[in-house]
Amino acid sequence: MSRQYSREDGSPEPDFETQVRRAFDNLNAVLTAAGCTFDDVIDVTVFLVDPETNFEKAWAIVPEYWGEAPHPTLTGIGVTWLYGFQFEIKVIAKLP
């Protein structure tokens, strides 16, 4: 699953933390529809604009969805542009 970050109309949320939570909420809906949970995710890639500023903010939100460690493998990639967004997530999940 990828590109789980925007509002229903495709526009970005106004601030970084809200974008991250929206991405995780959208991801949760897709996982649920597939009969999965966050426990079924085995690999995560996040794309962040300004990772020096934003990685710790995003990482602080992860436990709200995955609980405490251990978490799946996560790769963080700093990018210069995400078409008006600041955060994007892509995951690989196993079907239960």
Describe the structure.
With 96 residues, the chain is of the alpha+beta class. It has a single domain, classed as 2-Layer Sandwich (60s Ribosomal Protein L30, Chain: A), CATH 3.30.1330.40. 35% of the residues lie in helices and 24% in strands. The protein contains 2 helices and 3 strands, in the order H-E-H-E-E. The protein has helices spanning 16-33, 51-66, and strands at residues 41-49, 73-79, 87-93. Strands 2-1-3 form a 3-stranded mixed beta sheet. Helix 1 (16-33) packs parallel to helix 2. The two termini are 16 Å apart.
How do the strands and helices of this protein lay out in sequence?
Elements: H1 16-33, E1 41-49, H2 51-66, E2 73-79, E3 87-93
Parallel strand pairs: 1-2
Antiparallel strand pairs: 1-3
